[in-house]
Amino acid sequence: MKIVKICGQIEVLTGLHIGGGDDVMKIGGIDNPIIKDTNSGNPYIPGSSIKGKMRSLLEWNNRLVSYGNGSPFSSENLSKIPEPDKKSAENLLKLFGDSSSKNAFGMTRISVSDCKLSEESKNMKLSEAKMENIINRKSGMAEHPRQTERVPAGVKFDFDIRIKVLDGDSEEELVGMVKNGIELLESDYLGGSGSRGYGRVKFHIAS
Q1: Is residue 138 part of a domain?
Q2: Of 18, 26, 86, 165, which one has the fewest beta carbons inside 10 Å?
Q3: Beta bridge partners of 131
Q4: What is the tens place of the pLDDT at every residue in 127-140?
Q5: What is the DSSP letter of 132?
Q6: Residue 27 included in any domain
Q7: Beta-carbon count within 10 A of 200 CB
């Protein structure tokens, strides 16, 4: 087995909101807080958010979404895939896992760590409150104001993705699919409210 590392930084280009729980209701406080590290209080990007979004985008990009009936693509649907697309479908299941009870491809190959705040960003402003509301179509007046907390543009996080390459795997194909997933994520968005311009990010790959 070989483990390939893809490391670097994620730069926030537009305000990023990945929600965190808040068990205390504060009058006049933020309605939708961002997720923060319990010990440091700094924001971070959960590895699960990156992994899940990459898988979703890769399923769309490889024309696999329609086979899952709303669920993640699994090996139960492989027999329906046209032969030219089958190899990509198999590599996706190798990388991200197979929800089928058969689990035909063994262990999940990709591991995405939580992305901690980069050292260079620790002295920056790490959150902003963006006011949002709904416009009443008849009166034209703003209604239901609420505050959403975001990580501001310019903040950077360190990322670490690791790929297990087992006997019989193609390192070039697996690593290539992960890098394609990164490109798709850069073209789309991370976190919530992407249709309103949130969550544009840039991956700076160091190794």
Answers
A1: no
A2: 26
A3: 147
A4: 998 866 677 776 76
A5: E
A6: no
A7: 19
